[in-house]
# Entry
Amino acid sequence: MSLKDKLMDDLKAAMKDKDITRKNAIQMVRSAVLQVEKDNKVTLDDDGVLEVIAKEVKKRRDSLTEYEKSGRQDLIDGLKAEIDVLLKYLPEQLTEDELETIVKETISETGASSAGDIGKVMQAVLPKVKGRADGKMVNTIVRKYLS
# Structure
């Protein structure tokens, strides 16, 4: 079963269960997938759908920090619930320790030694952790080891 089919089945189940948060999160992801497909005139495979889901999670996490600054607890709770729903579709996320190990290996592979090599290391690390780690976290760890 493709990821798009799973999303559709889960949407139907959420509607039957009257789980509004799950229904809304899945609908927004399906809408984003359709938008990408129409814009690029392609049909996304599971990897493409995972990229869209990861982008949607990132958007919500970015919004979450803004809502926390403004103290909007009602919106914070809703966003956290949506993030939890969407994370179930992504591969298991890497821990900070696992990421540090991958970054250290990549630094030694690329021969990076200074902050000027951050781009080279990031370019090598991101394909290894695709969909399993946030780019900001990867960047922070790379900067930590190259500074």
